[in-house]
Amino acid sequence: MADKRYCRCSDDGRPEFYGCGNLSAPAGFVHQRRTMGCMVLIYVLAGELHISAGGRLHDVKSGEYILLRAGEEHFGTQRSSEDISYFWVHFKCGEWRGADAEELRQTAGKGYIAAEHAAERGGRLPQLFRQLLDLSLAPPPYREKLAACSLELLLTELSRECCAEISSSSNEFSPLITSVRVWTAENCARRLTIAEIAAQFHYNAEYLSSIFKKETGETLSAYLLHSRIERSKALLTAGASVKEAAFSSGFSDEKYFMRQFRRLEGTTPLRFKNAFAKKKVNNR
What we know:
Order of helices and strands: EEEEEEEEEEHEEHHHHHHHHH
Low-confidence stretches: 279-284
Radius of gyration: 19 Å
Strand order of the largest sheet: 2-9-4-7-12
Number of strands: 12
C-alpha cells in the first residue's frame, strides 16, 4: 500500500460524459496506441489488459481498473493470452493531479479520487458501469443528463473506495491482520477453511481468529464469507450464472450461497444480476 499512487480532481462539478462501451475481443487483442484529450477509465471484466500509460507498464487483471489521464500516450504492450472484456468510459471533469494519502484524508468527500496508473479492485464498479451503459442508450431527451448523473455516481463510488482503502492503510490494522485480509480476499474462491488461512500465516486457527475479531470487530469466517459474496457480485455483473458465481466464489452449495447472498445483500443473486444486465454494448 505504501507505494500506491493516487490522483485527485478538486472540481466538484458534474463530469462531462463523452461516451462508454463494453469491448469484448478474442485472445490476441492488443490495445491501440493513442493519446486522448480526455480521461479514460477502464474496468477489466475478464482476461488481462497489458498496457503502457504515463511511461509505466501495467497488467490490469479481471476485477481491476486503470485510469488514463488526458494528454498521456497509452498503448498495448503485448497481446492478450485469452479472451478479454472490459468496460470503458471517456469523460472530462477538471484537472487531475497527483495527491498523497494525507491530502486525500484531509479532503475526503471533495472532488474525485482514483488510483493513478495502478490497478485496484472495485467492489461496486461493474454494477455502476453496467448502469452507465444502460442509461447512455436511453431515448432522448434525457439520455445525456442520465449518463452524466450515472458517471458522477460511478466516479463518486470510485472515490469512496479509494478513501476507504487509504483509511484502512493508516495503521487501522496490524501488518499481520492487514496481510490476512488481503490474502483471504484474493484466495476466497478456493475452498478455504479457517485452519488453512491460519496455516498460511503459521498461526493456530483459534488464536488467529481471536486476534482478527479483536482488531476488526468481525470473525475471520464472516470476513471470508463477505469476500466470497463480493467476488460473486463481480461475476454476476460480468454475466455469470448464479451457479457459476457460487462455485467460482468458493461456495460448494448453491442453495447456501443463495441464502447468504440474500441475507447480506437484501436481494437474490438473480435479481442482483438482472438489475444492471439489460444491455451489452460491444464497441470501443
